[in-house]
Design a protein that fits this description.
The complex is a heterodimer of chains A (370) and B (423). With 370 residues, chain A is α/β, with parallel strands linked by helices. In chain A, 48% of the residues lie in helices and 19% in strands. Chain A contains 13 helices and 10 strands. Chain A has a 10-stranded mixed beta sheet, sandwiched between helices. Chain A is globular. In chain B, strands 5-4-3-2-9 form a 5-stranded antiparallel beta sheet, with no helix packed on it. A 5-stranded antiparallel beta sheet of chain B has the order 26-27-24-30-31, with no helix packed on it. The chains are: A alpha/beta (370), B mainly beta (423).
Amino acid sequence: MLNILVIGNGQCGNRILDSINKHAFGGGKSGKLAKFYSKQKYKSRVETIAINTAVNDLKEMRFTKAKDRIHIPHLHGVGANRNIGKQVFDEKKEMIMRQIEERGSFDIAFVLTSASGGTGSSFTPLLVKEMKERYDYPVYCIVVLPFREEGTLYLQNAAFSLKDIRASGADGIILADNQYLKNIGGSIQEAYNGINDMIAERILFLLDALDSEMMMVTDLGDFKTVMSGGAGLATIGFFRAEKELPVKTAIQNALSPSGLLFSTDVYDEASRAMVIIKGDRKYLSIDDISTEIEKLSGAVGHVFKGIVVCNGEYPQVLSVLTLESAHELEKLYNVAVQAIHHEKAKKQRVEEGAEVDKAFAQIDGLEPEY
Amino acid sequence: MKLKRIHIPVLCAFLILLMLGSAASARTEIYDGDIEEGDGYQLNNYVIEITDVFVEANTASYYVYERSKLIEDGLLDINESVEFEFGDEGEIQMRLKSVHSGSVLPRATVEITMSNYNMGDLYVNEVVDGGHSEATFAGDPDLEITKDVDKSEVNIGESITVTVKAKNTGNDVARNVLFTDPKQEHFILEETTYEISSTIPEIGYQKSTPETLVYIYKLKATEAGTFKLKAVTASYTNSADQIYQSASNMPSITVIEGNKQSASIEASMNVDLLSVERNGKITSTVILKNTGDAPAQAVRLDIKVPDGLEYMGGDEGIEVVGGNPRIYIDTLQPNNDKEFRYTLKANDIGTYSINSELSYEYNNGRDAANIKETGEATTPSIYVMKGKLDFLFEQPIYVYIIPILILAIVGVHVYRKHREYKY
């Protein structure tokens, strides 16, 4: 049995973590009351920790135990200011690390975070760095990129945060892009919840798969190998059939843009891949699976595949793909650079406003004469 | 023996003298003195007037008046006397003792005595200057009292109005008038509208003096027959404090038997349901109706709620006494009815009927005392059946304890989970 640590950092990380815990109670259909009558069905020993400076975000969580919600006292958040976030982390570092230490040793850790917010984007690089210095298990970050229209601060935060995480020693970064996933539709809240649920479902599938008995085996070692490839960036694809469907189609969907968390052409940008297929034996055609895996490995190079037999279930496919390049990420950085320039220009305008203050200052100490 | 013969005629003579002397002593001297010519002497309403004094002839002439009426006259010589009747049995005697020529007018010295008359009854006893024409006389007041009734024929229980008035038809004021109206048999005093409660100081006798209202009251006839109302009497005095009495007429009243009145209360009790499940509610309606012709007073209905039923509440006119509802009405007029509703809860299975005790009283219009009546009323039988959930209470104890334990365990589990996830 694997020992897995999942940390949700900041509001986004907290929500994805809560969604994972929710799905662990019995799939996506688990209701609000599931925690009262059901147990979380993790195959491994999974410890979850939610970290946030905003206590309200922690209060919003419903499926994460109270003892696993760690409030870092600093007013009501860091206000999307990564510099403040970093400072707060430094001050509370031992408190945070003690929480991790108290939960024992692990075989693998995931840190869930948004790249754009305050607490998550500033804490995550420093936390990963600290964990890598103290522990010898791999630490993977699942980083959510912002909507491009969310504002200049978020864009520049995302750019710098992603860079810092990459430099922190993280063993891999799995990208999820809100901009790419926003076609879920509905209200903003529904879109966020939908994205969180999508990410949670994939991670839960991955955690289960890493500790499952498989007909064809992929294990933690294979996952590490996949994640060590490419440019240190990865994404996850997933497809769950809702009716009888050839496994071939399920694999294709899991690798298609509609199944991925980040916009990429896997056949063009992927470096290594791991494909895990789950379902009833009658759907798992070896020929179909081999055909599709061969097709992928022909483009990518090496593909680890695992097959989990679950009686009565329609085919489900999870793909983990490390990327050599990420065209979409380059676009993000281009936008982020513009955002930084924009912010800089605004700051300059504010400073010019100080010149106006000088004009007013000329009458300091004088009184009107009548 | 010789002495005896001498003394017997002396003794007889002495006895005769003594008898004559005692007869002479019954006269009471009233006046012994002079009366000037033209003056008189007044005794109550009598005046003896000395009209002329003839000194040379030793005579004097006189007139005797009773008020303005001349009843006696004559001429007296010295030591001659005149007598006349005074009042009913009295007698006055005047003797001329002497005549004198006075400084202006001649005078006669007279002695006036009185017999068979109480001295205390003399209210005027003096010389009157100017004689009879200057005397003042006391009159006789006469109160005429009338007792009128508005009806001379009534039914038993009906009332008559009695009005008593008085008028002085005499020739003197009536003073200190005190009226007395005796209690009337066969009638009861129902109401007094007007009453002179104290003595009237004076009632004049002039024609212009209005009648004096004495009483107005109502009598209620209580017995059949023809009855004379008792006379109102009055005692009073004249201006000379002489006492007089008068009595009114006595009107006759015929009282007819007539019909007696009565109140008759009919009490009915009904329920909206004759069959109800245990713990169900029943609404009972009570109607109290007076079918008589007299108002019923102090109408009371005590409802006896049987064990197994429970009184839950009712209309405003229902009070709870000793755990049982009670309806009370001060007065229920003839041909009137009142309706009350109350609610009962069926606590135990069984068949019940609700009994009640009725009591009231009325006046039959004749008797002074009210007549009391009682009665009873009962609802139809009410059948209380098993309730829908009654079977629960018929199960063994573990049937209840096991679900309670399960619920308790679930409750503890939910609470622990809640605490575990509550941030």
